[in-house]
Input
Amino acid sequence: MLSAFSRHLPDWLRHYRRDLFAGDLLAALMTVMLAVPQGLAYAALAGLPPHVGLYASLLPLVAYALLGSSPTLSVGPVALLGLMTASALAPLATPGTPEYLTAAALLALLCGLMLLLFGLLRLGALSQLLSHPVISGFVSGAAILIIIGQLQALLGIRSDAGAGALMLLDIAGHLHELAPLTASLGLGALLILILSRTLLPRLLHRLGLPATRAALLARLMPMLLVVASVLLVQTLGWQARLPVIGTLPGGLPPLGLPAADWPLVRALLLPALMIGLISFVESISIAQRLASYASSRVNPDAELRALGAANIASAVSSGMPVAGSFARSIVNAEGGARTPLSGLLGALGLACVLLWFTGLLRALPLAVLAAIIISAASALIDLRTLRHAWRYDRADAYALLGTLGGVLVFGIEAGIAIGISLSLATLIWHASRPHIAVVGRVPGTEHFRNVQRHDVKTHANVLCLRIDESLFFGNVRAVEARIMKELKRHPDARHLVLIMSSVSRIDSTALDMLHQLNNDLRQRDIQLHFAEVKGFVLDQLKQADLLEQLSGEVYLTAFEAEVNLGGK
Output
């Protein structure tokens, strides 16, 4: 019976080695130290009671550890999903009410079911739906919204101006109303967090700590700030002078499926799909980056299933949507984690916090939580990708800026829609303008290269064009126009050879264009030839009657075409 049970355990657990335990345990303790302040902060960002962030950090760790393919990815609440959750639920319920909490858990459940279904259908390629510049623009825009939204709590100013630029302008106009104690504590905490991220690792390294250990200790500054601010408030009796978290419920989260009715489910379906897509893209990016450090691999389909199970686990424990956290995952990896046992031990540590230590957090100032959120969000603003895209491909840069602007002006949901549209538009824009080169043979070889880049041999009666893109309805007119332009520039050409080594597909519209091109060239006493056609494309062409009507031949290579046509 024991052997039958062990067969159902994950591979890493069946083959676990005792010498790995110390590293996994240390990593789990450090991850818990970061998960507590982040869980509290990101739940507040989502408009939920802070303890919900701790609930959402517990069972998702267990679910991911048992099903995920990354040994070090840490799953739980993240800033981006906190903002998206607030955006999705704000029109449906009042933050903090039981209806709002139920809707948050239901959102996590729907998100988890969708991701689990996508994983079972092996749709891991969904991670490629959005280009990196578009993801960068979306995340950067959301980060700016997060920062603006936390300025009220950071400075002690109340604003009813909505969100985004309007709130920023309203706060700027009411700076004279800021609460001195709240603002001092919040700005001081923010300054410490910024310095800890930029200067503290170098300082600790100069004092003799290894670089990785110095960076790890610097990343634990949020927890140190939480402890220090709680002690400061309790010692000086500031609870009545500034907003604090207040009493948190102790004990483990209640288990059960969230209550739902069809109108609420229908209203949450699209937000759940968007949150699921973003959480998967963000999580798989982090997992792949961690895998590259360890020379391992990540299974996108397994990640979909594991992330779906993690969100379902969060839903049944009264939580919120979750995803992989870059900061906690890095702390987990650098802390010594080698297997998913670190996630299970981390869940055990969070359970201990919920059972015995929530009372210690009641004096935590909301301004410090705001500082933690702003510090985390500021790290998400990605100017590096914008600079790189601007130098390398302006279309990607415009897509990034368009997505960022869409998030800031129209909101999260519209920003995602704009991002997906811009991703597809960029793809179509590039595909509709295929690169077509006039080529000739490099003397002494059988290789054909662009006449504008190489010293090559050509024949006046043979025009060789290499098409570097599949042929489809979106680019056939551009291809046809370029062919006609080159024929006009080569009036002595009696043979047109289309080299199709890069053509992987010819749709029906492109097939019609080739038919028409063949007929037009025949009337001009010019023969149309194909060379280097891929086998499956050739099979496709054989099902049509183009090859039967072709005025020329189909050659295996461009060199064979030149040998047969060059002297004609």
